[in-house]
Known about the structure:
alpha/beta; 37% helix
Amino acid sequence: MAYTAKVGPSILSSDLSQLGRECERMMECGADYLHLDVMDGHFVPNITFGHPMVECLRRCIGPDPFFDMHMMVSRPEQWVKPMAAAGANQYTFHLEATTNPGNLIKEIRESGMKVGLAIKPGTTVEELAPWAGQIDMALVMTVEPGFGGQKFMEDMMPKVSWLRSQFPSLDIEVDGGVGPDSIHRCAEAGANMIVSGSAVVSSDDPRSVIALLKNAVIEAIQKRSLDR
Length: 228
C-alpha cells in the first residue's frame, strides 16, 4: 500500500484577513498540506478567491507547503495554467464541471501539477472509476460543495470503501464536516487524505486535533494491512 495518512486544513475556515499567518500556523501545528477552496459563484453559489491570492500566499509562506486546490468552478480548464503559475501543487477539479475529463487531466499533468478528481454527493463513484488510473487523488465530498459548517454525510462512506477496494494505492480524500466525531468512519472506509475546516482551524488546540485525525487514519491503514 503506497498511500499515507495526511491532514489538510481547509484555510477558508480561518481568519481571511490573516491568511498568510494562518497558513503558517496550520503548518506549524502539523498539517501535511493546505486545502484551498476556489469557488466561482457559478458551479457553487459562493465566491472565494482565485490565482492572484494563491500567488501571494506562495510568496508569503515559501515553496514548501503543498497547495491542494479544490476547484469548485464551472470551467476548470480556464484556470489550469494560472494556478500552476501561481504555485499550486495539485489541481482538484469536479467531474460534474467538464465534458472532457481526459483532456483536462492531461493539461494539468503537462502544467506540472498533480491531478485530483472530485465528485459531489449526488455523483456515483462508478462515474469517477474510468479516470481513477489517471489521477493522483479522488475526492469524495461528504457535504454539498459551496458552504462550510454542514453536517457530515455518513452515507458517502460506501463510495470511499468501494474506491479503496478497487484502487488500493489511490489517495482518497474526504471533505466536508470531517472532525474528531466523524474521522473514524472516514478512516475505516479507507480515506487517507483528510480535509478539516473549523474542527481544526477554530480549535483552541489545532495541533491536538490534527494529531487525532492523523492517528485515526494511521491506525486504520495499519489494521487494513494486517487484515490482508
